[in-house]
Amino acid sequence: MVKTDSKKEIMKNSLTLIIFLASFLSFGQDDPVVVNAEGDRRIDKAYRTPLNPRVIDTIIPTAIVEYPLLVLKFETTTEVERINPASIKLKEKLPQLYSTYIKLGIGSELMPLGEIFFDSKRSRKYVYGAHIKHLSSFGDIKGLSTAQFDRTKSLFYGGINEKRYSLLGNIHYNNQGLHYYGISDTLGLDRDSISQRYSDFGISGEYSSHRKDSAKLNYTLGLAYNNYTSKKPLDTDFKDWRARENYFGVTSKWFFKQGKETYSADFNVRYNGYKYGLPDTSSMGLDTGIVLNNAVVNLKPNITTYIFDNRFKANIGVDIVLDAHTKTKIYVYPLAEIKYSMFNDIFIPYAGIRGGLKQNSFKTMTLENEFILPNIELRNEKTPIAFYGGIKGTLSRRISFNAGISFANVRDKALFVTDTLFSLGNKFNVIYDTMNVTTIDASISYQLKEKIKIDAIGKYNSYSALNNSYAWNLPQFQFMIRGHYNLFDKFLFNVDFNIEQGRKALVFTPDTQTTIENGQRIKDLGFITDINLGVEYRYNKRISAFIQFNNLASQRYQRWYNAQVQAFQVLGGVTFRL
Q1: Would you place residue 81 in the very low, low, confident or very high pLDDT band (cuts 50, 70, 90)?
Q2: Nearest to 493 by CA among 464, 536, 526
Q3: Among 3, 76, 189, 364, which is most buried by a count of CB atoms within 10 Å?
Q4: Are 142 and 125 in contact (CB under 8 A)?
Q5: What is d(CA 203, CA 491) in angstroms, rounded to the nearest whole number?
Q6: For residue 204, what pLDDT is reported?
Q7: Distance between CA atoms of 558 and 555, rounded to whole angstroms?
Q8: Residue 191: phi, psi to the nearest 5?
Q9: How far, in Å, are 29, 549, 558 from residue 489 at the CA level?
Q10: DSSP 3-state of 236
Q11: Pairing of β 477-487 and β 558-560
Q12: Whole-angstrom Cα distance, residue 474 to residue 460?
């Protein structure tokens, strides 16, 4: 029995060794190894626990735990801490508006001043108001004829602003009286013989669409009428021998945006009818009257685009003009401009080409020189081409600047010369010339909120005329400084400083101060220095007083040849807001 067990034990150990060696060798071989062996495994016998399920009907009671209430009483105290009352500072988001502003004053040389503004205050939908101003002078200039004048202007306007459209309109009436005083008072001329009065009445309206979708077509339509006349002759038999002018205008602008491009077009029709006297219809054909029908129709399509994150702007187009003046002609003028914003608008260089036609009228001529004859020739000013360029920008939040240069060829440029045919040399006639104009200008502005504002502007003009030695009465050099200072919102100071040099006049009477060039007698109008200072004291928000000092240098310079200005003047008064 012992031997048998020993054999079995030897077989078990041998089998275990063989399995171990096979497993060890299998790690070094790729092919699998199969081992077959025999052994003796013992399995214990199974048995079952003799238990039967039963029901336990005994109820196990749950212990009840009681927590007795503890009677504890604590006295509490209350202390109120005093809080200082809060202070509220009321500040209006928008300044208070007053519907009426009145300015009354009087100056040296018996110069009364009156001005009234009326407005509708703040309204989202409606806007309306009026402006009336009167200024006159009963003083004279030493050595010259009567220089009295009066100017009255009135404007009434109103409009409706809606989300989809706006409608605006205005009516104006201006009346201006003056004297042709540029002649010696030793001649003893009657005041009425050298007096003139201009009457100006006009009405205009404009309708604009405001579609929110920029891709849709928006437009602006305008209508205008203006009547402008000069003084009626003293003799009623010659009532037609005065200037009468009627202007009609239809203007429109159409534009829409697609992507980064904006397409627009202007279409305008302007008619101006000017008459002086009546044309002679007799068989002799002696026509001493003037009748001019001046119609201008222009179409100006153009495209504007923005690229490089809106830093680069380009505009290109043409202006097609039909000029139906003495002869009907068609002109095509170029329009092109580029701008580029550098360093967040610190420097913006720009350059462009342009041209166009300016419609001259008797009204525009008198606004430039009020001492002209009522019987003048009218031509439209044409600029076939003009080149310009420069740079503008902001050096800081308070300082901005602009510097540029332009070259233009101008045809039928209006020049004012002394008349010796219809007057005694105290009126001006209009002549026209072709010239090349070069202009160099620069400006710089400084503004510190509403406390300080200063503007300095310099301009140099060079004229090369075809038929005249100089551009008569036009300045060659101009320099201006405008300043505003607010001291504690109580005292407001304003100053204007103007310098002009290089103006020449064409004269026909020789004297020691005239020279002759190219067969033309020339007189230098000298250097102009004009300094004006104004001070306003605000008693409160509604009442203030002002005083204005004009021509502090007391220089009797000639704005036009023989038309001297008044010397030092003082004007003072009060203002009211209601």
Answers
A1: confident
A2: 536
A3: 189
A4: no
A5: 39
A6: 97
A7: 9
A8: -60, -40
A9: 105, 21, 38
A10: helix
A11: unpaired
A12: 11
State the Cα–Cα distance between residues 553 and 531, nearest whole angstrom: 6
Query: What is the spatial distance between Cα 299 and Cα 262, in angstroms, rounded to a whole number?
Result: 17
Cβ-contact 98, 542 below 8 angstroms: yes
- Spatial separation of the C-alpha atoms in residues 297 and 465, rounded to whole Å: 28
Instruction: Residue 254: count other Cβ atoms within 10 Å of its Cβ.
Output: 16
Which residues are bridge partners to 130 per DSSP? 118, 156
Contact in structure between 409 and 384 (CB atoms under 8 Å): yes
Burial 336-363 (b: 16+ CB within 10 A, else e): ebebbbeeeeeebebebebbbbebbbbb
Of 362, 367, 340, the C-alpha closest to 352 is 340
| 7's tokens | 């054999």
Residue type, 438: T
Q: And the tokens for 531?
A: 């300094």
Give the pair of three-digit tokens for residue 416. Answer: 């004012």
- Beta-strand pair 514-517/452-465: unpaired
CA distance 198 to 301: 37
Parallel, antiparallel, or unpaired: how do β-strands 558-560 and 528-538 relate? unpaired
Q: Which amino acid, 515?
A: T
Whether residue 246 contacts residue 270, with contact meaning beta carbons closer than 8 Å, is answered with: no
Neighbours of 476 (CB within 10 A): 16
> pLDDT tens, 198-217?
999 999 999 999 988 777 89
DSSP state of 561: T
More confident residue, 529 or 60: 529
Nearest to 399 by CA among 338, 341, 345, 458: 345
Neighbours of 145 (CB within 10 A): 24
Mean pLDDT of the chain: 86
Say which amino acid occupies 571.
L
Give the single-character DSSP code of 355. E
Is the model more confident about 5 or about 129?
129
- Here the tokens at position 436 are 């090349």
pLDDT at 19 over 90: no
**pLDDT greater than 50 at residue 511:** yes
Q: Contact at 8 Å (CB) between 70 and 549?
A: no
Closest CA to 225 of 179, 272, 282, 191: 272
- What's the pLDDT at 203? 97
Contacts 24+ apart (CB under 8 A), 530-533: 530/496, 530/497, 530/498, 530/499, 530/555, 530/557, 531/495, 531/496, 531/497, 531/498, 532/494, 532/495, 532/496, 533/493, 533/494, 533/495, 533/496
> Interior CA angle at 243 toward 239 and 246, to 5°?
115
| Cα gap 51→110, rounded to integer Å | 139
Structural contact between residues 415 and 376, judged by C-beta atoms closer than 8 angstroms: no
Q: What are the residues whose beta carbons fall under 8 Å from the beta carbon of 284, sequence distance 6 or more?
A: none
Name the amino acid, one letter, at 401.
F
CA distance 475 to 559: 10
Query: What type of residue is 107?
Result: G
Q: Answer for the pair 133, 117: CB distance below 8 angstroms, yes or no.
A: no
Q: Using CA atoms, how far apart are residues 534 and 571, in angstroms rounded to an integer?
A: 9
Q: How confident is the model at residue 70 (pLDDT cuts 50, 70, 90)?
A: low
